[in-house]
Design brief:
homodimer; alpha/beta; 434 Repressor (Amino-terminal Domain); Rossmann fold; 6-stranded parallel β-sheet; 6-stranded mixed β-sheet; 13 helices; DNA-binding; Transcriptional regulator, LacI family (chains A, B); Peripla_BP_I (chains A, B)
Chain lengths: ~350, ~350
DNA sequence: TCAATCAGATGATGCGCATTATTAGCAACC
DNA sequence: GGTTGCTAATAATGCGCATCATCTGATTGA
């Protein structure tokens, strides 16, 4: 086992060439009129094989190359793991993809927290530089920081749809709209007509998309949209009964478990009297919690797809060719904004509508 | 927003000093006979504050400094989060500690897998270098690789006790011995006398420790140790009844859930007829699974403590002082090998022994 | 008065790599 | 025979930082 690390210079010496030649061979060469004969190339490759040379990522990065390190930054105040039920799956997907890509993952756990959200400023900028590109997680992004990333042409990909910014931000999101539409379809197929939307107004993308999906689907079926502002769970339960809903859709962050409890406390059964569909997975799966019907967000896949996309963007940035001298195909606009299907979850909180006043 | 990154040279220019001076100020200076006046120091610090300068980790690392990056390597074939019930909590703890320390975490997801376990060789060595030190996870470490780490004096810490290697390997483990002893104590306190150990023979540390704990405790109480080799769950259930055990202890990887099912299928209740104590948490918590009694492994804390220890080791390696000119205290032997208490879990699978032939 | 000491800093160097500019050798052409 | 053109490579440079060796000017000691 060698004491000192093996460098390109060592390899060069063994192959009887210059360090530069080794670098060219490793990078598929040909930046400008540089040519390496096939024979020399082979000699270098042999030397690399024999010595077991591997590039020092720090040096690569410093010299303006790629380090095969991709970063993960989050805007949440505490690193995603803490809210592990929600963020864990993203990271699992990211790690799987990283293994496939042969890339290391750098978690920016050091970024300072200000105003309850993590910032990229100051400390952040430089640290980002160790990674070839970065995945961005969490709702509360900071516009100025994003602008800087765009300005400096630093490759990044959002996890979660970003509609706000006219197509400049690459992202991999989930199709909350489509998922919600299908839930309404489902309810209608079960004979429901009075279907309420329970939730908080919000400007976050998932909420906007759920509302849009609800609106669209209700309109399609010629039904009236009815929103119930969630303030107090008990009050909301009363309202649901007052309005004689036979079904409601609700986002997972809006305490569906407690809501169902309240309904049952009022002598109604879920789904016997009221069907409840969840627009996403439960955030904090309770021991012995209900088996919710609704749709699920493909979080692992989102993580993985985001990393793949990021790696493509990084490759695009680097004007380097593969060994056939061709550049990989450029990233298309379609790739830049991916929205993944949210599969339906059968569950046990949906049933046929009780025949009510609106029944035929 | 500056286009080009701010370097020490920029800061130096602003403060009217040389780049070297800036570096000295940042590192608490004084490598050899170098002195910086308080006034100059302040000027440099001001310039840093104004420019918002931050060190480029790649450059720091290349120049032999610290990058404030700590690595996580695993010997498992797939990266830990994938088997997230077991490994997830370690990473949670690690991330929390990283936030506290202001350090980024590098996951070595790129390390190649050979023979079903991940290796550090070739690819690995150089990549490790980006991090100031590294946490090691998983059972199947490779001796040669460890030796190399020791030889090159690369700072690392194992998560999980490492007894095999006479105190040369730093680790943060869990006290399986003590935890197991207490479970036996618990059973004895409940009047149990015929207490079996169900499990597979294994040479992994946790298994060795559980067996040791069982042996010790049984001896202390003057009871006979009885091991049931787990081959087939059904056969094991039969054996438990044959031997008229009133209680068994079992490791979580040995299918406790199925075992209890088998017992109940035979008309025995858990814990009514047979108490079952789990020596650790369930590996794959089942929906609606039993509420196991036993002990839990403080995995998050292990992760966090391991990272703290690693950071101390790294600091120790670097002959650098803090701003008062003192070196932090060296790592003691006690710190080098930490074993954390495994708290008891009350649970619902333990009850008083049914009066049997051994009863008074 | 001249050497010795010391505070306070700076210049130069190298870490390992990517990349640009340059060179050496040789065949072809006028 | 000199110039052009081409292939095949190398020398040199810089990325940003840590660090070693060195330098300057002031103060002290004899």
């Amino acid at each position: 086992m060698p004491r000192r690390r093996i460098t390109q210079t060592d390899v060069a010496a063994m192959a009887g060439v210059s360090q530069a030649t080794v670098s060219f061979v490793l990078n598929g060469s040909t930046p400008a009129g540089v040519r390496i004969s096939e024979e020399t190339r082979q000699r270098v490759l042999d030397a690399i094989r024999i010595t077991g040379y591997t590039a020092n990522p720090a040096a690569q990065r410093l010299a303006g190359g790629l380090a095969q390190i991709l970063g993960v930054f989050t805007y949440e105040a505490t690193f995603p793991r803490a809210s592990r039920d929600f963020y864990g799956p993203f990271l699992t997907g990211i790690e799987h993809a990283a293994e496939r890509l042969g890339v290391d993952i750098l978690l920016f756990t050091s970024a300072p927290v200000a105003d309850g959200r993590r910032r990229l400023t100051r400390e952040g900028w430089q640290r980002l530089g160790v990674a070839d590109g970065c995945l961005l997680l969490g709702q509360h992004e900071h516009r100025g920081e994003l602008q800087h990333l765009l300005d400096t042409n630093y490759p990044f990909v959002f996890i979660g749809k970003r509609g706000s910014d006219g197509g400049r931000l690459p992202y991999v999101g989930a199709d909350y709209v489509g998922g919600t539409v299908r839930q309404i379809d489902r309810l209608v197929a079960h004979g429901h007509r009075r279907i309420g939307y329970v939730g908080l107004r919000g400007t976050d993308q998932p909420t906007l998309d759920r509302v849009e999906g609800y609106r669209t689907a209700m309109k399609t079926h010629g039904l009236t949209t009815r929103f119930v502002e969630l303030e107090d769970v008990a009050a909301t339960a009363d309202e649901i009964l007052d309005q004689r809903f036979t079904a409601v859709v609700v986002a997972p962050e809006n305490h569906p478990e407690e809501l169902a409890d309240e309904l049952e406390r009022r002598g109604r059964s879920v789904p016997g009297d009221v069907s409840v569909l969840l627009l996403g997975q439960p955030h904090h799966p309770r021991r012995g919690g209900r088996d919710w019907s609704g749709f699920s967000v493909p979080r692992e896949e989102m993580g993985a797809r985001a990393l793949y996309l990021l790696s493509r963007l990084v490759a695009d940035d680097e004007p380097r060719r593969d060994r056939d001298g061709r550049r990989p195909a450029a990233v298309t606009d379609a790739e830049l904004h991916q929205v993944l299907v949210c599969p339906d979850v059968a569950g046990a909180t949906v049933a046929a509508a009780a025949p009510g006043p609106d029944a035929p």
